[in-house]
Design goal:
With 83 residues, the chain is of the alpha+beta class. It is built from 2 helices and 4 strands. It starts with a helix and ends with a strand.
């Protein structure tokens, strides 16, 4: 996660009856504050993880960039095309 603001929202898995060992790398539990309180599951993909998914799915990555958020780097985006 590229944003300190979002990293501060990470909640312990124990809040939903799980442990960190039961979830994968990049899996996060975040609090929800808008319009009430709650929790949400978020998976933070790395560029390497997406590269493996693209290759395994027979796609080629044609562009990779970060966008969104105050700093312009909140989300990782990729453009894929079939081989």
């Amino acid at each position: 996660m590229n944003s300190p603001r979002w990293r501060a929202r990470i909640q312990p898995w124990e809040r939903v009856g799980l442990s960190a060992e039961e979830v994968g790398l990049g899996d996060n539990l975040l609090d929800w504050r808008r319009g009430g309180e709650g929790l949400r599951y978020v998976h933070h993909f790395s560029e390497d993880e997406l590269a493996h998914l693209a290759k395994d799915s027979d796609f080629e990555i044609t562009d990779t960039f970060y966008s969104d958020g105050k700093e312009g780097n909140l989300g990782l985006y990729q453009v894929w095309k079939p081989h």
